[in-house]
Design brief:
The structure is a single chain. It is elongated, with a radius of gyration of 36 Å. 42% of the residues lie in helices and 13% in strands. It is α/β, with parallel strands linked by helices and 1080 residues long. The strands form 7 sheets. The protein has an 8-stranded mixed sheet with strand order 1-7-6-5-2-3-4-8. Strands 19, 20, 23, 24, 25, 26, 27 and 28 form an 8-stranded mixed sheet that branches.
């Protein structure tokens, strides 16, 4: 007997000496590796036969259910060992697997038979070569042969020669001929063949998904995946959905079941309503009660889809959900959509769908003397927390405005405001509250960067794994660009092509000695607007009295009466500026209103000066309708429980009256400056009329004369209607309509009911199903003038021409407006956006806003004691807005690119999980796919020649700051020179690219893989690609080293010894996709 220790004497060397031509081998071992074959290939090629017994069940007919992981996973690992064990990573990383597997399979077909143990009985491993035996043998691998290091502390193998070996030979023959074994030769050959067969790009994509997300498959159950037995996939609504909407619907149901809530934040025009209807149908089929909460202006959309109406395309689904408005949450009586609010059981809804959920981003508040709940608080307390368990689906293209708290407030509806309800469900290291605190800190730091560095990409890189994991768990957000790039849009059709925006800057007027914007703004800067700040003039000795009276009435703990008045004066100053930009008409009306209000206060003061006994009852400014609804904090500022009353005896009326009279003088100057600009001399209006006529005479799509004109203000809308509608009717026979939301609509069609829905149906008859709804009505509206009451949620895609008569300060609003016509499924080939800008440079425009803000702050310096006029953050924000507005002058930008930097778009991994869930239903065999597979595909736009490597880290020391969401899986895309195209910290982008490259490529591509095989000699010469793999792994290690160095230099603690990579073998190759140019 001889002992082989695999150190000074190795088993592989001994076998090479003992195996001779015509030798007969018999091996009983747990596994077989093609790399062990490669090690002994020269000797094994000449043997007479090899009989191999798998000592544990392998490749046999399964008797154990997959759910019993303790049996199933070890068996799967044994079977995968055919193409390399975990100790043969280095060999697999040489990428020669394909050639070795082909040669091994050919040899097996000639020389080898495999059988497997089918029992639960343990069998020891041993090997016989002619009359020599070796034992124990664990597996036929390079680690066992001694050429690779395994995980055994020692390896002592006994070598027996005859006569001692005869017992082992008898034992093997006895086992071989017993009924305990099953012949598995064909299955072994089939599995090895999989390592060298040509693969389609789609198959490699799904192999990637399976390895990354297989735990998701194990975690899901019938409770968290949609139950198809409900029949919802047979519904009309389901079969009307596009493929990307179906993915979203399935993902939403999964998230609602697992996390109790979800935000669907797909971009404008991607059909969120239809996706939500499919989800509603699913829950109604399960006999659940559903409530839809929507803005009043969108109520008709939702009511139509549940009603027995001619234009309800899904009437056969007989949906029965309730529809109420956001405003109904604070009502206690009356009727809404036929529902008696005084008797409504708010707490009995299993699912609440909130359309335009960003309206609930400010959270819950209690305000007023009666301690009333605002809409959010009532929704949380009366609908969600009370009664049955309520799931919440939120719909919004803009769930985040300027802070992550916006998103948190909405998500709190899903977990009842109690983090303990969701924290255990999330795969995060911190609680949801801590995640948002960290995210907001990252945002605050990012917001101080120079404008050119404040990119969404740079913000995302500053956020950690937990934040992305949270978003991935409870949100679905895809952009238009994402859908067009990564989905098969053959059935969807294309979006219309966006023409370059027209940017117009007409002067105010063509009168002689014409006034300019800058001259008007110079006078605006002189206004104090003290009429809105009476508290500033209360005598110091009397201030405490009013603090007690009115600060208890505040809706916001951080807002006292003085602060509120300061905010209102700023709003009014900005309002004057915005109305000046909108139209001379609107500006003059506002001047008159302010003049009238100030004059009434001056009259009261004069009366007081005579009688010395006068109580000033100030108009409640919250009743004013002329403020722009998008002004930040306007809702808080205007929320007041009662009118404010001040005894003039408690005020410094002399100073206040002096300020008021000075404002009256300046307002009179402003009025005189613009009084002569009548419609015929209003250059902006005349330019609009010319644009409208040009469009009518020269349609950009054949026969389409429709034009949608947006303005922020009702006054301007009325002004435009009065000056355009009659002229277009008389000259072209074209009908015009006005929709403003605050008053009844108007149209030039006699007898037409001018409610919102009728007007929109006549303006966009195809998208609004006019033929079904109003078959006898021939009314056709070609020009629609509207305020932002229709800038959200409306499908007006019959129109191809949109004009912004005034530029909204929030660029997102401009894009939302354009989203009314820029929609999926549009029949228009092209669409046009026209923007009217003030007749000044963009720098001047930005500076004007800065001057207004600075002016308001200077006025308030004495009361605040704050000498920092504009903070660095405010200055940075102005620079950032400037960059946004500059882009809007040159192109139509998607909403996710024009947010204030906080975008959750295209970050989720839901689409990939849903891809995998559907694929594995018909391809369960993918779980057996060996590691190291590859496919070759053709390069496409933004995917240059190179290789995408998918790796698995065998240690746990490279996930920098928890930034790689896929850890322990890593993906790197390198070009053919080894330069990184997309690094491992952008896994979502890489998965998107793989999906894009695999789209419509379900079969191997001969014109691509044949040249590749020729270059690599069918996988025998893979040195170039193995070197690229090395560079891909190097890029991961370098990122880790950079991070460690930064941590060390900034004073953090880091153990370089513990965190050093041992070598490249820390990464196991899962698969790779070669991207090549197609040869002509």
């Amino acid at each position: 007997m001889e002992v082989i220790n695999n150190i000074s004497k190795k088993l592989g060397d001994d076998l090479k000496k003992e195996i001779s031509p015509d030798s007969k081998l018999s091996i009983a071992a747990a596994c077989f590796s093609i790399y062990a074959f490669e090690e002994l290939q020269k000797e094994l090629e000449g043997i007479d036969e090899l009989r191999f017994i798998f000592t544990s069940p392998s490749f046999t007919t399964e008797k154990t259910s997959k759910e019993k992981k303790e049996f199933y996973i070890p068996r799967l690992n044994r079977e995968r060992s055919l193409t390399g064990t975990e100790f043969e990573i280095r060999l697999r990383n040489e990428l020669s697997q394909k050639a070795i597997a082909r040669e091994c399979a050919d040899w097996i077909k000639k020389k080898v038979r495999f059988k497997s143990n089918t029992t639960d009985e343990a069998m020891m491993g041993f090997m016989n070569i002619d009359d020599i035996s070796y034992m124990p043998i664990t597996g036929f691998t390079t680690a066992e042969l001694g050429s690779e290091k395994g995980n055994n502390a020692y390896s002592m193998i006994n070598k027996f020669e005859s006569p001692f070996s005869s017992e082992y030979i008898k034992l093997f023959n006895s086992l071989w001929n017993s009924d305990k074994l099953e012949d598995v030769t064909d299955k072994v050959i089939e599995n090895i063949s999989a390592a060298y067969n040509e693969n389609s790009p789609a198959f490699i994509y799904f192999v990637t998904l399976y390895n990354i997300f297989h735990e998701f498959l194990e975690d899901i159950s019938e409770d968290t995946l949609p139950n198809e037995a409900t029949g919802f996939k047979n519904s009309k609504i389901w079969n009307m959905l596009y493929n990307f909407q179906k993915d979203a619907a399935l993902g939403i149901i999964n998230k609602l079941e697992k996390y109790n809530g979800c935000i669907l934040a797909d971009s404008v025009g991607l059909g969120k309503t239809f996706t939500a209807l499919a989800v509603i149908k699913y829950y109604e089929n399960r006999n659940k009660n559903v409530l839809v909460l929507c803005p009043k202006k969108l109520g008709n959309n939702w009511v139509t889809f549940k009603g027995n109406y001619l234009n309800n395309t899904i009437a056969e689904d007989r949906l029965r959900y309730d529809v109420l408005f956001h405003t109904d949450l604070t009502r206690t009586h009356g009727f809404s959509n036929g529902i008696d609010l005084s008797r409504l059981n708010w707490s009995n809804y299993d699912l609440v769908v909130i359309d335009e959920s960003h309206n609930f981003r400010n959270g819950g508040q209690i305000y007023g003397d009666e301690k009333k709940e605002n809409r959010y608080a009532r929704l949380m307390n009366q609908v969600i927390r009370k009664g049955v368990k309520t799931k919440v689906l939120m719909l919004s293209a803009t769930p985040v405005n300027t802070k992550f708290l916006d998103l948190k407030c909405q998500l709190e509806l899903a977990y009842e405001g109690n983090a303990a309800n969701i924290d255990p469900l999330l795969n995060t290291s911190r609680s949801i509250n801590d995640i948002f605190i960290a995210a907001q800190k990252a945002f605050n730091k990012w917001s101080k960067l120079p404008a050119e560095e404040r990119t969404i990409d740079s913000l995302q890189k500053s956020l950690d794994f937990d934040f992305f994991e949270l978003l991935d768990s409870v949100t679905i957000a895809r952009s238009r660009k994402h859908i067009q790039t990564y989905y098969n849009t053959k059935d969807i059709g294309n979006f219309p092509r966006r023409l370059t925006p027209l940017s117009l800057r007409p002067p105010l007027t063509n009168l002689n000695k014409a006034i300019t914007y800058n001259e008007i703004f110079d006078i605006l800067m002189m206004l104090n607007l003290s009429v809105y700040k009476p508290s500033f003039f209360i005598l110091p000795s009397k201030r405490e009295k009013y603090d007690k009276l009115y600060d208890s009435n505040k809706p916001n703990a951080n807002l006292n009466q003085i602060g509120r008045e300061q905010g209102i004066s700023y709003l009014m100053a900005m309002n004057l500026m915005k109305r000046m930009e909108s139209s001379i008409y609107s500006f003059r009306l506002t001047l008159e209103r302010i003049q009238s209000y100030i004059s009434s206060i001056v009259d009261v003061i004069k009366k007081f000066e005579k009688h010395k006994d006068e109580m000033l009852s100030l108009t409640d400014i919250s009743n004013m309708t002329e403020l722009d609804s998008e002004d930040e904090n306007a809702e808080d500022l205007l929320k007041v429980g009662r009118k404010m009353q001040i005894n003039l005896a408690d005020m410094d009326t002399i100073s206040w009256k002096r300020d008021l009279e000075r404002d009256l003088d300046n307002l009179a100057i402003l009025d005189s400056m613009v009084r002569d600009i009548t419609p015929e001399y209003d250059t902006k209006l005349q330019t609009l009329i010319n644009i409208v006529e040009t469009k009518i005479n020269n349609p950009i799509n054949p026969g389409n004369r429709k034009i949608l004109i947006f303005t922020a203000f009702v006054d301007t809308a009325e002004y435009l209607y009065n000056n355009i509608a009659p002229k277009m009717k008389a000259k072209y026979g074209i009908d015009t309509a006005l929709i403003s939301g605050s008053v009844d609509g108007k149209s030039t069609i006699k007898g037409l009911k001018c409610d919102l829905n009728t007007v929109l149906t006549c303006f966009s008859p195809i998208s609004k199903d006019k033929e079904m709804l109003m078959p006898q009505n021939t009314a056709n509206i070609d020009i629609l003038i509207a305020t932002d009451c229709i800038s959200e949620g409306q499908n007006l895609q019959d129109c191809d021409y949109l004009i912004n008569y005034d530029i909204h300060w929030n660029p997102v609003r401009i894009i939302q407006r354009f989203g009314r016509i820029d929609r999926i499924g549009s029949l228009n080939q092209v669409i046009q956006l026209v923007n009217f800008w003030p007749d000044i440079t963009l720098d001047e425009y930005i500076n004007l806003k800065s001057r207004v803000e600075t002016r308001m702050k200077i006025v308030d310096l004495t009361s605040t004691g704050d000498d920092d006029i504009l903070s660095p953050a405010e200055k940075a924000d102005l620079d950032y807005r400037k960059e946004q507005l500059k882009r809007l002058q040159e192109e139509v930008v998607d909403i996710e690119e024009m947010s204030t930097g906080i975008s959750i778009m295209d970050l989720g991994l839901n689409d990939f999980r849903m891809d995998l869930v559907e694929y594995i239903k018909t391809h369960p065999e993918i779980e057996r796919a060996p590691f190291g597979l590859n496919a070759v595909t053709r390069c496409k736009e933004n995917t240059p020649p190179g290789v995408i490597f998918v790796l698995k880290n065998r240690t746990n020391n490279v996930n920098i700051d928890n930034q790689n969401r896929l850890h322990p899986f890593y993906m790197v895309y390198v070009d053919m020179d080894g330069n990184v195209i997309t690094d491992h910290l952008s896994p979502k982008k890489l998965l998107d690219k793989m999906r894009y490259l695999a789209r419509n490529e379900e079969e191997p591509i001969p014109s691509i893989y044949k040249p590749f095989n020729k270059e690599t000699r069918d996988g025998r010469n893979m040195k170039i690609y193995s070197a690229l793999l090395g560079k891909a792994i190097d890029s991961i290690i370098e990122k880790k080293s950079e991070s460690d160095a930064k941590t060390f230099l900034s004073g953090g603690q880091i153990s370089f010894i513990n965190t050093m990579m041992k070598d490249l073998d820390d990464f196991e190759l899962i698969c790779f996709l070669v991207v090549r140019k197609e040869e002509c």
